């Protein structure tokens, strides 16, 4: 027995290790790589990262870290500067009018923040490095090699003593002359960069991998996805159990549609656990969006009386499916436009601040109005009071699910971008999970409200009647076979008796 337990525990440890390797090791912090030339732009914003507030008890290891390599394939004496700029000072770079500004006006605010041994000795923060760094060597400012992360040319440490804040990684083709004035680089600056950004020291393995490897607004998002993934597996098992408790005649299209919703939700959350992989993120969003659209279709069909009446065939509602298909196609079109062309993390533009996002919210409101009109019609046409009350509760509950998204957009507009992502993620995933769970409970085979689904009763009666007819046919067949056998036996007996009589007579 102990041998089997040890194998069982070992298998669980290996599974946990596998999940860690697949999910976490593929999402080690924010990594930015590429090549930049000053010929096209005077500066370039490489990344935006939310650095957390430092822990007073472990200030050294809870800081923000920016480390990596910035080198050049050619040596022409050209020099630029790499800066880590807080959001409070980055507006000058985000304004398109700054493209024509001189280096002195562009970097005048940075001079009061950054430290440089010769020209900026009063600077408080170590947020700049001259680039490119010498090939195969540390950057010039790295006078303490023991503090540089291994295999890196530079390591910058960001301190946020009071509150989390966004910082921007910027490369500028500017330098300080002998008079400590900012000047534009005359020669072309070409650099290859490979940088990592983390919340906390990458050398400290005791840090929470769901925290230090992500920007502040995405910290713990992997835990949320994994928790919902497990919960949807549990709900999926409950739905499977509900179907198994039914006989074959009770497996209606609404069960099939709900099964598709749960599978897509689970698949999308599993892909979202692979943080840092853009294709997985896109595919996960597509799966989650499709599941939400199917949930809208299921609720709208129910508001038309689907399964509450005498039939549960989707083909009886072709207009509903066609209109839903058009709205869903428009929803996906707006989603792709927002994902590839509009969504800009540098400008804090998300789904609630972009015109495609507003279009998606409008589609959701149209579906809510559609659901409301049809559920009211269904209630008014219902003659049984108890069923009308049930439909009223059903409609009111799921109408909240339709319209909460609009209210969430209003609330999110007042939230800081550092908190907005997690708030939206938690509320949307929780709302969808509650809606799916309520439907699983409503469709449960022993639910007290199941008698309101008339299609179930009619189908069950047809199933029982078919079984009875099959039983009667089978019984008649047995009686017929038995009668034929008796007749054959009687004929054989008579023939035998006649033969015997002739023999005795002879």
Automatic annotation (TrEMBL):
UniProt-listed GO biological process terms: G protein-coupled receptor signaling pathway; response to pheromone
Entries under InterPro entries matching the protein: GPR180/TMEM145 (IPR047831), GPR180/TMEM145_TM (IPR019336)
UniProt domain GPR180/TMEM145 transmembrane: residue ranges: 228-439
Domain of life, source organism: Eukaryota
Record keywords, A-Z: Membrane, Signal, Transmembrane, Transmembrane helix
Transmembrane portions of the chain: 224-245, 257-280, 286-308, 320-341, 361-379, 391-417, 423-444
Signal sequence, start to end: 1-29
Any Pfam family matching the protein: GPR180-TMEM145_TM
Record's protein name: GpcrRhopsn4 domain-containing protein
Native species: Onchocerca ochengi (Filarial nematode worm)
Higher taxonomy: Eukaryota, Metazoa, Ecdysozoa, Nematoda, Chromadorea
